[in-house]
Specification:
This protein is of the alpha/beta class. The protein is built from ten helices and 14 strands. The chain folds into two domains: 238 residues, Type I PLP-dependent aspartate aminotransferase-like (Major domain) (Aspartate Aminotransferase, domain 2), CATH 3.40.640.10; 102 residues, Aspartate Aminotransferase, domain 1, CATH 3.90.1150. It binds pyridoxal-5'-phosphate.
Amino acid sequence: MKNNQRIHNFGAGPAVLPIEVVEEVAASLPNILESGFGLLEISHRSDVFQGIMDNAINSIRKILKVPDEYEVLLLQGGASLQFYMSALNILRKGEKADYLITGGWSKKALKEAKRIGDAEFIWTDEQNNFKMVPNNGEYEVRDDAKYVHYTSNNTLYGTQYHNIPDSKGKPLIVDASSDITGVDLDVSKHDIIYAGAQKNLGPSGVTLVIISPWAMSQMDDDIPSMLNYQVHASKGSMFNTPNTFGIFVLSKVLAWLERNGGMDGSIKRNLEKSNIIYKELDRTDFWRPHASKDSRSRMNVTWNLKNKELEEKFIQESLEAGFGGLKGHRSVGGIRASMYNYIPKESVEALVEFMNKFEFKYSEK
Ligand SMILES: *Cc1c(COP(=O)(O)O)cnc(C)c1O
């Protein structure tokens, strides 16, 4: 592919960004905001960078309607560090935490929390290869659980909650890495929200963490500085050198989102895009969608074909036709089309057109 030709990028993350943002970033490399400093070469202690950080945090507050008393942090280490860090800041040895297990990411979150306290799963769909999320009432929260943790969108299996799970009045922690700003999220109903940026917010290497006053009050001084939300909050996410490049890109992505209808705009676009592809999957038995209908994700759509051989042909031929990133995660196999905020509807329409041709070529008549 030539430099100016871009693939229809259905990759699961790092994911496609708006081309305007990519071009703005490229133009800022030698000289950022007319400061004379290059984007990769500017101090995080400069006024220019402080302005970028402030803009990013303000955009997040606006887009996600974050209550004023909540902290908003931009950290490093990915969502994977937050599996441990969120538990470490809240849970003490012997205390209970309850986890809803809907895929590989929630299993990893639980594994890390078990290092700290009495963390257990209270619901899992593993026996069914993670086809659904739980309905309220299908699980019991332990009386003395300190919090309930869930994964809002299951990137690998293509399932998603369409309502906040009932935590029976307990504080709620969510890994929202793969649907933050892409679907409705009521921040005020959660105590910790964390998300790696590389799906809906920007590049890898930046992690958004939003923390309620209750959660902020749970930390004690034994927690190592780099793992302590209090420390990061007191330093405005600059206890150590932040990912300056990543935060700049994130600020530009969020500015794009604000210009394009904010969270409501992306919710509408994502619903439209996912409906186009589910309609095709339901049209014919040639496609075998993985997720149960009620639990279908608007961000990652997963399906199988009759056999592995045909799936491999699909991946190969789709790549030749200009579609990238469609290979399913190794834990599910098959096909996965990830459609986060910034993949255009035209890419999804083009994919469905390709799917029609593929079916025509390979269906048994
Ligand atoms: C991608 C993803 C992760 C992993 O994020 P890292 O930033 O790579 O640690 C965790 N949880 C979910 C739901 C994801 O989609």
